[in-house]
Specification:
This protein is mainly beta. It has seven helices and 43 strands. A seven-stranded mixed β-sheet has the order 33-34-35-36-37-38-39, with no helix packed on it. A six-stranded mixed β-sheet has the order 20-19-24-23-25-26.
């Protein structure tokens, strides 16, 4: 026999010589060897896991499978079948087991185990996972070697998870005047590979796309240049990009080489444009092609501020299921991120959430972090945030053994400061608080509630508990001080008290009547002047100055030219005496 091949459901023998039986058997043996080496053991049909009839057990449906007949990764595959297996025992609760199909010399059986059986014996394969909890609730997963139609499944998985995906190339760059070019590229659709040709918008037009205002899409007139002056405001008419603002343009390419530019959805600041995610878009952009990149351009154009390629950046939100699967997290300078081990994380425990764990200076130094890099540090966790510490032998939260604090630091066992120094070192101290709660600005010995030497304002309390406003006038080394209090009188009136004179000066009652020299102005007097040592002195001016006034009936004054008291009545000035 010179050749043998399989056609549909029969064998075609090209030439049969002597010892036909022996030759056919030899060819079939070789064919089985090729099949066994190329294929994997697998479930062909059935074998689904479910809850068993009895509580706390599981069931395996009737199945057919191909299993290796020897413990070899290239061993022959043998067809086997198994009837339904009900009430299979699960050894322990809250333990995940693999369900195992054992070859067993051609009479398959079901068992369970923690490890993958194929690692230790190529005749046995996993067909799923099973677990029961403490109340015998069954949890099952039909997984394992269910590889029938494996290539088809692989293709469908790749297409469902990644759709059409750029492998390499198709790099976007600025060209001409608001044109762009793309290099050749390679993409995958499932497990199918396609080549994308290069592109130059100056030579071949692209199609702009934006919302039509009614839930659909508008494909604009074919264009060679990016329209940097507009954005998609959603109403069907493009909006104007603001001055000193930026637009986004999402570039898509079909496998058949059609190119599209999707307008961004806002007039962005640069930071907003960089952070903006891929907006909604017509389905055909995904069905026949893929997103290649995002262009960020200023309103006036003339250049592209930023081009983000999908091969460089994830342009849509993508969540990592496992933080340990993230790459590029190692940081070496301030403001970068650090991927910490569990030991390093323990050393940092409590810094952000004020937990009970406390960090020593050695803990923080061992992580390569400076004290200045720590923010939101609780009082107990690490007071070194606020102080320059030369040495730190204390490992407790109290700071009782702090050494070599800055010269002007005053610390008790809770490490509280009573002085602050200006950032440039002068004045030193800039602010101080004494044991009585008096606050000094630029002085270590405040004698008032709020005191500042050679300044203009003191806020203090006198011996009777009244707030006192202290005003000072400084002329060289001479200083004139005046102290005033204000309080509410028994009748609700506001009273200003002159501490220098020891007398009330002005009072304003609840009707707005003003009293000078009395705390109770007469109710019928708008202004009540009370004194035994002074008189009312009214306005004095010459006749010329008087006549220059815009007079109003009721005015009073003393005319120093006429030496007369005069009043303005009935439209003219009249002497009163």
């Amino acid at each position: 026999m010179t050749a043998i091949r399989i056609i549909d459901d029969h064998l075609e023998l090209a030439n049969i010589g002597s010892n036909t039986h022996s030759q056919i058997d030899t060819e079939l043996t070789a064919l089985r060897g090729i099949s066994g080496a190329a294929d994997s053991p697998m479930i062909i049909s059935g074998g689904l896991l479910s809850e068993g009839t009895n509580a706390g057990t599981f069931k395996v449906a009737a199945l057919t499978a191909m299993l290796r007949s020897t413990d070899s990764s290239t061993g022959d595959l043998a067809a086997v079948s198994l009837a339904e297996q009900d009430n299979q025992t699960i050894t322990a609760a809250d333990t995940t087991y693999r369900v195992i199909l054992n070859y067993n010399g051609g009479s398959p059986t079901i068992s369970i185990g923690v490890d993958n059986p194929y690692d230790s014996d190529k005749r046995n394969i996993p067909i799923g996972r099973i677990m029961k909890d403490a109340v015998d609730t069954i949890h099952h997963l039909n997984s394992g070697y269910r590889l029938q139609g494996g290539v088809e499944k692989l293709h469908e998985r790749a297409r469902a998870v990644r759709n059409i995906e750029l492998e390499s190339g198709s790099t976007i760059s600025y060209s001409g005047v608001n044109n762009f070019i793309m290099t050749e590229g390679l993409v995958y659709a499932g497990i199918n590979k396609f080549a994308l040709s290069s592109y130059d918008s100056a030579a071949v037009t692209f199609t702009p796309i934006y919302l039509d205002g009614g839930g659909g899409w508008t494909e604009g007139a074919a264009s060679n240049t990016i329209d940097t002056a507009h954005y998609d405001d959603g109403d069907g008419v493009l909006g104007d990009i603001g001055n000193n603002r930026y637009g986004n343009f999402w570039i898509y390419k079909h496998v058949d080489d059609h190119v599209y530019a999707l307008y961004g959805r806002d007039s962005y600041t640069l930071a907003e444009a960089e952070a903006a995610g891929e907006p909604s878009h017509p389905d055909h952009l995904d069905y026949f092609g893929l997103l290649v990149g995002k262009i960020v351009a200023p309103k006036l154009g003339g250049s592209f501020t930023l081009i983000q390629m999908v091969t460089d950046s994830h342009l849509t939100a993508v969540a990592a299921s496992d933080h340990n699967n993230l790459g590029g997290l190692q940081g070496g300078t301030l403001a970068e991120y650090y991927h910490l081990t569990s030991i390093e994380l323990t050393k940092l425990g409590g810094i952000e959430n004020a937990a009970t764990a406390d960090q020593t200076k050695a803990d923080i130094d061992s992580l390569g972090l400076s004290h200045d890099s720590l923010v939101d540090v609780s009082t107990d966790d690490h007071h070194a945030q606020l102080h320059s510490i030369a040495s730190h032998n204390d490992t407790t939260a109290t700071g009782a053994e702090l050494e070599t604090l800055t010269d002007n630091s005053i610390a008790d066992t809770l490490h509280r400061h009573s002085e602050l120094v200006a950032s440039d070192g002068s004045p030193d101290p800039a602010l101080s608080v004494n044991a009585n709660g008096d606050v000094g600005i630029g002085t270590t010995s405040p004698s008032w509630g709020l005191a500042s030497p050679e300044k203009l304002l003191h806020l203090v309390y006198d011996g009777d508990g009244f707030p006192v406003l202290v005003l000072e006038r400084i002329n060289g080394s001479a200083k004139t001080t005046k102290k005033y209090s204000q309080y509410i009188g028994s009748g609700g009136q506001l009273v200003i008290y002159d501490h220098t004179r020891g007398a009330n000066v002005i009072a304003v009652d609840t009707n707005g009547n003003i009293g000078y020299g009395t705390t109770v102005p007469a109710t019928s007097a708008l202004l009540d002047l009370t004194s035994t040592t002074g008189a009312l002195l009214i306005t004095r001016m010459t006749t010329t100055q008087k006549n220059a006034l815009t007079a109003i009936n009721g005015m009073l004054l003393y005319d120093s030219t006429l030496n007369k008291f005069q009043g303005y009545e009935n439209g003219s000035w009249t002497s009163l005496i």
